[in-house]
Automatic annotation (TrEMBL):
<dbReference type="InterPro" id="IPR036514">
    <property type="entry name" value="SGNH_hydro_sf"/>
</dbReference>
<protein>
    <recommendedName>
        <fullName>SGNH hydrolase-type esterase domain-containing protein</fullName>
    </recommendedName>
</protein>
<dbReference type="Pfam" id="PF13472">
    <property type="entry name" value="Lipase_GDSL_2"/>
</dbReference>
<dbReference type="GO" id="GO:0004622">
    <property type="term" value="F:phosphatidylcholine lysophospholipase activity"/>
</dbReference>
<dbReference type="InterPro" id="IPR013830">
    <property type="entry name" value="SGNH_hydro"/>
</dbReference>
<feature type="domain" description="SGNH hydrolase-type esterase">
    <location>
        <begin position="101"/>
        <end position="281"/>
    </location>
</feature>
<dbReference type="InterPro" id="IPR051532">
    <property type="entry name" value="Ester_Hydrolysis_Enzymes"/>
</dbReference>
């Protein structure tokens, strides 16, 4: 009787052990399958020459974009060269004038269908020209210049449109994280697929060594910086140099250049701008009140408000509070694209105006027009479809004199 009970218990134990082993194997296999199953690739890929660029043959939705209705309208499709598929047939020799638009997400058309981005609306407005949209979300002026060099000979444009600023102004943890060709090469190398993370034995061994304090944990890579002194992806001086290079590149090829200046959404930066105006006028109490509102709003311009609020606090002797206010924590993923802006749009737009004057380029003040009606923005800085139509109309008016200059009558 006792032996039968023992045998039964052993059988139950072996059955449970077998089930546990099968459960463990199933979980491991399913987890491995999930890791090894190819996912829908991102719309971009990292490259050492541009930092990142559109992924050739991509077709799908861009993560993070606002799709207010009918997601199918917002599908992005790129050809084998990374150009928008709607532009493919326009690249190469044609009887029409060629216009090349380089820029950031406002040129790319973030948040609006491809056909409703201002370069494509401009294309529809001009029967005499083809507009090629080379805007890429997240681009700075340095990436735009590199993109112009890379694609100019293939497109051979008669006019170049350039628009940058927002990403140039975004904070980075150190000078080494500022935009440069060395940074782009590092980032491209770092983002190559690391097969070690697919090997479970490697994962387990790494965790064991961390617990035994034989190696250090990588942590989240967060860095703390002071908003008053932290660098941006592109400094004002470097921004000016990049725009100068774009202008000189076009001058050497006798191609007219048009700069398009955008502005941040006034509804998102109202208290920040009011605080700075009070600070410049010496009204410290009013400046502090407005800037504290801007900080507490915790939006994309709150870090810039912290920078100016720290200045106010320092002026009235609250040094310790100023230091705490100016302290920003940047996660590791901010190294590439940067964090929130740490400089005003007006500072960089003034630089663009000065470069345009020196080189005889046209500057279209699209931001001044859009900022009169905050409802034309989707968010902190991107125009909606109505806004893009307005920008296209403004640029179209500027192009008339470039593509069809008035004929000067010969004197008798």
């Amino acid at each position: 009787m006792k032996s039968r009970l023992t045998a039964a218990l052993i059988g139950v134990a072996l059955t449970l052990a077998g089930l546990l082993v099968l459960e463990g194997l199933s979980r491991a296999l399913l987890t491995a399958q999930a890791d090894l199953t190819p996912e829908q690739p991102d719309w971009y890929r990292y490259t050492p020459d541009l930092g990142w660029e559109r992924r050739p043959h991509f077709k799908g939705l861009v993560a993070g974009e606002v799709h207010r209705h009918e997601p199918a309208r917002y599908l992005r499709e790129f050809d084998a060269q990374g150009f928008f598929a709607v532009d493919t047939e326009q690249i190469g020799p044609t009887t029409r004038k060629g216009i090349l638009a380089i820029g950031d997400s406002n040129t790319f058309g973030w948040g609006v269908p491809t056909r409703n981005a201002y370069p494509e609306v401009l294309d529809d407005l001009r029967a005499d020209a083809d507009v090629i949209n080379l805007g890429v979300s997240g681009y700075s002026s340095l990436q735009g210049y590199a993109s112009l060099i890379k694609h100019f000979d293939r497109v051979r444009p008669d006019v170049v449109i350039a628009s940058f600023s927002f990403n140039d102004r975004r904070v980075v943890p150190s000078d080494a994280a500022a935009d440069s060709h060395e940074k782009f090469e590092r980032e491209a190398q770092m983002h190559r697929l690391d097969f070690r993370e697919k090997i479970y034995l490697y994962r387990g061994l790494q965790r064991l060594l961390v617990k035994l304090h034989l190696i250090k944990s990588s942590g989240d890579g967060s860095t703390t910086v002071d908003a008053r002194t932290a660098p941006t992806r592109v400094s004002p001086d470097q921004y000016q140099q990049n725009l100068e290079r774009i202008a000189q590149f076009c001058e050497e090829r006798h191609v007219p250049l048009v700069f398009v200046a955008f502005q941040d959404n006034p509804a998102h930066s109202e208290h920040l701008r009011a605080g700075i105006a009070h600070l410049n006028a010496g009204r410290q109490d009013q400046a502090e009140a407005e800037l504290r509102i801007a900080v507490n709003m915790e939006n994309w311009f709150s870090d810039l408000a912290r920078k100016y609020l720290a200045v106010v606090l320092e002026q009235r002797g609250a040094t310790e509070e100023a230091t705490i206010t100016a302290s920003l924590t940047l996660p590791a993923w901010k190294l590439t694209h940067g964090g929130r802006p740490l400089r005003l749009d007006s500072e960089y737009n003034d630089i663009a105006r000065a470069v345009a004057r020196r080189h005889g380029a046209i500057l279209v003040e699209a931001g001044q027009v859009l900022a009169q009606d905050a409802s034309l923005y989707l968010d902190l800085a991107h125009p909606d479809e109505r806004g893009h139509r307005i920008v296209a109309t403004l640029v179209n008016n500027a192009l008339d004199s470039l593509l069809h200059p008035p004929q000067v009558a010969a004197q008798p």
